[in-house]
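User: For my dataset I need records formatted as: sequence, then structure tokens, nothing else. Please produce one.
Assistant:
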Amino acid sequence: MEPTPAKTAEQTTRRGVQLAAPTAQPTSEAPLAEHDVVFECRELGVRYGRNRALRDVNLEIREHGVTALIGPSGCGKSTFLRCLNRMNDLIPSAAVDGTCRYYGEDLYAPSVDAIEVRKRIGMVFQKPNPFPKSIFDNIAFGPRVLGMTSNLADRVEQALRRAALWDEVKDRLRDGALGLSGGQQQRLCIARALAVEPDVLLMDEPCSALDPISTAAIEDLMTTLKSDYTVVIVTHNMQQAARVADQTAFFSVDQGETGRRCGVLIEMSSTDRIFTNPDDPRTEAYVTGRFG
């Protein structure tokens, strides 16, 4: 796979005044524990109407690594992921409580612009969802909406290179994106997210609809991207988490306040520890296939 081009000085400078930013970037070779905290969640919970979907999540996600969220269906993994870029705001019945800080700033403070949050914290969904436009226009869509039109052709090329797709599509940028294969469409969606220069890339089961070859390409891409971005991935594939993640958080279900099932974080640690020596017997039961 072609190396991911390094970010320019412009791309490593976080924009806006509503969210704090670190003054220096650690090198990609530094141990994960020495990296700055990107997300700090304390007593984070989500309700959909009267139903509690997630409660009491306490964790930290550090930059320049891949963090995997694993657990059985219905345990709140995707709900938690959507908290990190305020996608739950788009669900009328959703209410978030507790705190979620991004580089020390409260993501849910009244002064924070949700659009700015989603620009810095990009999202890739389970099913590839390219627009019915050309490959070029798919990548250029976000920058155009945000007024980032300077050197647009270069911006599109760099995003496609970072998504390891440039060599496959450079001679057909005006062709429709829907003509790409499933794996290419997913990498196109990753490139579309990268085109607006985010700091974080969230991925909600990005390989569940892909064949093994395309899955391997996306996994290689995640490993490459973490040198410049923070990657958080929801996956049901524990082998995938073991292959790509630096740290892993295991979620499960518990009885909520009204006796209904509610998502809870059981533990979070280095991926090696989660899969070989977890602290909680529920984690061990899950990763060894005894439940879930």
